[in-house]
Design a protein that fits this description.
Elements (H helix, E strand, L loop, with lengths): L2 H12 L16 H12 L4 E6 L6 H14 L3 E6 L11 H10 L1 E3 L5 E2 L1 H14 L4 H6 L14 H12 L2 H12 L8 H8 L13 H6 L7 H20 L5 E6 L3 H4 L4 H16 L6 E6 L3 H11 L8 H5 L2 E3 L5 H19 L9 H13 L2 H24 L1
Parallel strand pairs: 1-6, 1-7, 2-5, 5-6
Antiparallel strand pairs: 2-3, 3-4
Helix pairs in contact: 1-16, 4-11, 16-17, 16-18, 17-18
This protein binds adenosine-5'-triphosphate and magnesium ion (MG).
Length: 395
């Protein structure tokens, strides 16, 4: 960690936010739990896992941990946060798909985010691997006229336009995939810019009206059929470009109960969760951060709204993973790592000034806080105490 990285880390910790890029370095405790999570990343199979922890007890931290770990294990990763501000709804697979594309990250150093880094890498792989059967079938051996190797015909159109197009076309493709619902009345524009303008490069025998009739540009028809297909294509393309697949992380998943106010939206959202669990529609790995009472709350919502036809038992089969809270020893260890980072960030030696007993008493005090505030409180207090000492040291 260099000094500017350490400064960013300290700034995050000062606010009680897990420090991007360095979460693994600042992770303490929960050894066996963390081992079993990383073991999950070694497995080939997909499927969903609910990560349960109380408010403030490390859900976001753990998702960021998984993200770092997955990137270092050569997975493509995308994180979607479902809180009230993000305006992505889990019943809307077109929105979920768009957000996954927007936040997609490929394992490079430094990590790169967004559809551009992903598609550029895919195109690179297509160009470099002329003998790869999958890519040959996707591109129809370089003719690019037609192929149904990908599940989603929209994805084929998008990838092809990316391959032949310049930055302006790529911007349209990104914007379309990020918010496809805004393009419902712009099918003609999409046809023109992504298909017709490339007449010199490929011969797509379909006429414009066939694209509209077949809903090629539409991600929501038939229960978001194409959104699911395109999502699975992201996983397949990742695998064929040499990655280990796509890992999707959902934070603030409780949003499906608190912010979806319509029961049929909630039912759809629950069903989407089960689709991720069964892996029928998407074969990559997914992780959902929730509080321990999540499944009970879901059942309660359904009962209150008389949704007796819903199969409640499916909530009981969802694999869950409960996080134990951090203990005093963990927080002490964490405080020492923070102290080291503060020293690197501001180029001083806090351990010469901050007495061990002082650090201990900060942690002892934090242990008195309510369990859900403990970790955040301890971290913020340690940073504050270090900030104060540094100010005195400087003057
Ligand atoms: N295992 C851990 N090791 C070190 N720090 C941790 C660990 N777990 C959580 N933390 C730290 O505790 C604080 C709170 O964690 P986090 O933000 O992940 O909680 P949360 O469950 O997402 O909270 P909320 O319910 O508010 O979203 C963060 O600063 C985080 O970095
Ligand atoms: Mg959180």
């Amino acid at each position: 960690m260099n000094s500017s990285e350490a400064q960013q880390v300290i700034e995050s910790l000062r606010k009680g936010i897990p420090p991007n890029g360095f979460v693994r370095h600042f992770t303490v405790g929960r050894k066996t739990e963390i081992e079993s999570l990383t073991e999950r990343l070694q497995r080939i199979s997909g499927g969903a896992l609910l990560l349960q922890a109380n408010y403030g007890s490390g859900k976001t931290h753990l998702l960021k941990f998984i993200k770092e770990e997955a990137l270092s294990r050569n997975y493509v990763v995308s994180t979607v946060t479902l809180d009230a501000n993000s305006s992505v709804r889990f019943n809307r697979m077109d929105q979920i798909f768009g957000e996954i594309c927007r936040n997609i990250e490929i394992p490079t150093f430094p990590p790169m985010q967004g559809l551009k880094s992903f598609f550029d890498r895919i195109i690179f792989s297509i160009r470099e691997n002329k003998n790869n059967q999958f890519w040959n079938e996707v591109t129809n051996y370089g003719l690019w006229d037609f192929s149904d190797k990908l599940f989603s015909s929209a994805m084929f159109v998008a990838l092809r336009a990316w391959y032949f197009g310049g930055a302006d076309v790529q911007n349209i493709v990104s914007d379309w995939l990020y918010q496809s619902w805004n393009y419902k009345s712009q099918r003609k524009k999409l046809y023109q810019k992504l298909v017709n303008d490339f007449e010199r490069h490929f011969r797509d025998s379909r006429r414009d009206w066939e694209f509209y009739r077949d809903n090629v540009f539409n991600f929501s028809y038939n229960k978001y059929y194409q959104s699911w297909g395109a999502l699975n294509d992201l996983n397949d393309m990742s695998l064929n470009a040499g990655f280990n697949g796509l890992v999707i992380l959902f934070d603030e998943f409780e949003d499906v109960i608190t912010n979806l106010n319509n029961i049929s939206y909630q039912e759809t959202a629950f069903m989407n969760l089960f689709h991720f669990y069964t892996g029928e529609k998407f074969s990559g790995k997914t992780f959902f951060a929730v509080t321990p009472s999540f499944t009970e709350k879901c059942k309660k919502v359904l009962i209150q709204k008389d949704r007796w036809h819903f199969d409640f038992s499916i909530f009981d089969v969802l694999p869950t993973f409960e996080l134990s809270p951090l203990d005093k020893k963990d927080l002490r260890e964490l405080s020492i790592r923070i102290l080291d980072a503060h020293g690197i960030a501001y180029d001083w030696e806090p351990d010469l000034i901050m007495k061990n007993s002082q650090l201990r008493s900060i942690i002892d005090e934090a242990m008195l806080a309510q369990i859900q505030d403990r970790a955040r409180y301890a971290i913020k207090s340690v940073v504050n105490a270090l900030d104060d000492l540094y100010e005195d040291y400087e003057s």
